[in-house]
Amino acid sequence: MQLPLSASLRQVLDEARREAQGRGHRQADTGRLLLGLLHEPDGATALALARAGATGPALRAALEARWAAGAAERDRRPFPVPAGESPPLEVDGDEALLRADASARAAGRDAVEAADLLLALFEGRGPGREALHTLDLTTHRARESVARHLAG
Fold first, then answer.
1. What is the full DSSP assignment across 59-102?
2. What is the pLDDT of residues 16-65, one digit of tens each?
3. Both ends of the chain: CA-CA distance in Å?
């Protein structure tokens, strides 16, 4: 059984799905999750990313370049989303949530936080991680920087 998602993380996921839906994409991939994190209510993950060298505009530009290059071509087919519903998460996004859940459990938390998802995105695959690497954020360096910032 998975841990519950924090209210903040639920808002991040909603924003990621809105990003995908706004573009007519079939699913919300890890890039959309990364963009969703920029809208986290308390802004901690966006600040951590910026301090690691990945500002919101730079991330969006890197992701747009990945999508324009066809990295997510399978996600561009028109997908009729019923009124009141949002596109589902792509498999890589689901896997990131599972890693975030494991991270929260290992830390002894009772809910999965946005920071857990952010750190999980560095370990997975998909456009989110690719965009971070495009910005010269190695997984190891970025993970250390973000974890240090989020720890206090």
1. HHHHHHHHHHTTTTGGG-S---PPTT--PPBPHHHHHHHHHHHH
2. 999 888 887 778 899 999 999 998 877 888 888 888 888 889 999 999 88
3. 29
Is 2 a member of any domain?
no
Count of structural domains within the chain: 1
One-letter amino acid at 149 equals: H
- The token pair that represents 100 in the structure block: 């975030």
Residue owning tokens 């519950």: 4
111-117 mean pLDDT: 91
Residue 32: CATH number of its domain: 1.10.1780.10
- Supply 67's token pair: 């999508």
